[in-house]
Amino acid sequence: MSVSIRLSRGGSKKRPYYRIVVANSRSPRDGAFIEKIGTYNPLLAKDDEKRVVLDAERAKHWLSVGAQPTDRVARFLDVAGVKERPARNNPKKAEPGDKAKERAEERATKAAEAAAAANPPAAEEPAAEETAEA
């Protein structure tokens, strides 16, 4: 049985409140769990000590047994000093998708064509001046 440390949602609509639980990874998000090891209230200020309450002893025990924390819980464990979380890097995150790149190229070509149509080529102007002088 694979065990995970994850968040279980509670609270009413638009007022979330989470329990940090140890559960079978196949059980539903808000379903049965093995043990509750803390709470997380995202509505509290970030510097509030009650925002994340975590039993570090039990978290260490479950990690030693092989429980895998989710990314959000791993952040909490890192702040609590229980388990160090490696920094993640996704350089492609801000890169636009293929369709957006195509649209940008189309816009650029249309803008270049419009600019070319608005400004006549420089080669035609000197020819007109020469005929006026003669």
From TrEMBL:
Keyword Ribosomal protein among UniProt keywords: yes
Keywords annotated in UniProt: Ribonucleoprotein, Ribosomal protein
Positions with biased composition (Low complexity): 111-125
Compositionally skewed regions (Basic and acidic residues) per UniProt: 83-110
Claim: Transport is one of the keywords in the record: no
Gene3D superfamilies: 3.30.1320.10
InterPro entries: Ribosomal_bS16, Ribosomal_bS16_dom_sf
PANTHER family, sorted: 30S RIBOSOMAL PROTEIN S16 (PTHR12919), SMALL RIBOSOMAL SUBUNIT PROTEIN BS16M (PTHR12919:SF20)
Family, per entry: Belongs to the bacterial ribosomal protein bS16 family.
Protein name: Small ribosomal subunit protein bS16
Species this chain originates from: Sphingomonas naphthae
Lineage of origin: Bacteria, Pseudomonadati, Pseudomonadota, Alphaproteobacteria, Sphingomonadales
Gene from which this protein is expressed: rpsP
